[in-house]
Amino acid sequence: MRKPLLFSLVIALVMSSTQSVADKIVIAHRGASGYLPEHTLEAKAMAYGMGAHYIEQDVVMTKDDHLIVLHDITLDRTTDVDEQYPNRARDDGRYYAIDFTLEEIRGLKASEGFRLENGEKVQGYSNRFPMGSSFFRVATLEEEIQLIQGMNKSTGNDIGIYPEIKQPEFHRNEGKDISTAVVNLLKQYGYASKQDKVFVQTFSFAELEVIKNDILPAAGIDINLIQLIGSESSYPWMFEDDGMNILAEFADGIGPEKGLVINRLSSRGNLEISPLVDRAHAAGLQVHPYTYRMDPGQVPSYAEDFEDLLRLHYFEADVDGLFTDFPDRAVRFLQANQ
Ligand code: CA
User: Fold this and answer.
1) β-sheet bridge partners, residue 298
2) Is 71 an annotated catalytic residue?
């Protein structure tokens, strides 16, 4: 009896460890942002409860050097800054987070994203959480890490974080080294090796190089780095035959816009999958494209519906994970299909 049991245990262990490497992941894009205002702690708690494997933070810096979780370097689209501080816009009419202290930003009301049309605030996704309803605010990166680590403790899960350094060149021009501040905070909260559940992402290859070559060694840690890629024109060399091999010296994965994985002009019978995923995998890089949304008009016509879009990317294009505003749907999809 014992031998077969031990044998099957070993097999089970081997299988579960192999599986964990091959397992595909769901990254909650700005939290469960399809359901609650992006980047609020409420949206992050909801994403956690929905079973996302990683939860994303976009990070910008305040005037007094605090790291806050905000998608834009301006406060315009997601807060009532224009109502509370009408005289604090720059010449371009925008309210920059870097011109406000944390205390000032804490006093702002955060909401579902909107745009101005003829002076009126119009909600970006009309089907989402009502703009201006209830009460939300902007959180610091530290508060969010504490929230996720706190839930890891109380639930026994190990959900990861996925911070993006927003516009590092802008921050440097303003005299702030945001990447060093983020790396030091991650280190303080125990993220130190590639086994720890964190990916640091940025669109700037120049910044990625600095993080890899200078900032991480100075902090004495080595964590996973992701190069975001918005289009072929951002970095043409990355799309050449050896591009992914060169990138692999600095990054652990790529986060391409999803149209770079499956051409958005593809049709149902004729799916154009780019060689990017195969090249990245051959170079040892993971692939986590963005952003998968199920709002009206957001599912490309080559997919039958949102679940089909997930299937085509996870299993036809073979991506390792993806950023979605609807993490519950992607978690359920993987549970049913993996
Ligand atoms: Ca982001």
Assistant:
1) none
2) yes
How close is the Cα of 70 to the center of ligand 1, in Å? Answer: 9
For 249-303, how does the pLDDT look when each residue is reduced to its tens digit (9 = 90+)?
A: 999 999 999 999 999 999 998 999 999 999 999 999 999 999 999 999 999 999 9
| Residue 190, helix vs strand vs coil | coil
Q: Cα of 264 to ligand 1 centre, how many Å?
A: 21
Q: Among 29, 53, 66, 313, which one carries the catalytic annotation?
A: 29
Q: What is the pLDDT of residue 317?
A: 98
Residue 32 CA to ligand 1 centre (angstroms) = 13
What letter represents residue 1's amino acid? M
Residues near 50 by Cβ (< 8 Å), separated by ≥ 6? 28, 32, 327, 328, 331
Say if residues 319 and 291 touch (Cβ distance below 8 Å).
no
- The pLDDT tens digits of the residues spanning 51-94 come to 999 999 999 999 999 999 999 999 999 999 999 999 999 999 99
Options 39, 53, 66, 71, the catalytic residue: 71
- Alpha carbon of 247 to those of 139, 226, 232, 314, 317: distances in Å? 33, 10, 14, 22, 20
Query: CB-based contacts of 87: which residues, under 8 Å, 6+ apart?
Result: none
CA of 258 to the centre of ligand 1 (A): 14
Q: Which domains does the chain have, with CATH numbers?
A: 25-73+139-336 (3.20.20.190)
Q: Are 320 and 288 in contact (CB under 8 A)?
A: yes
- Alpha carbon of 290 to ligand 1 centroid (Å): 9
Whether pTM > 0.85 for this model: the answer is: yes
288 is catalytic: no
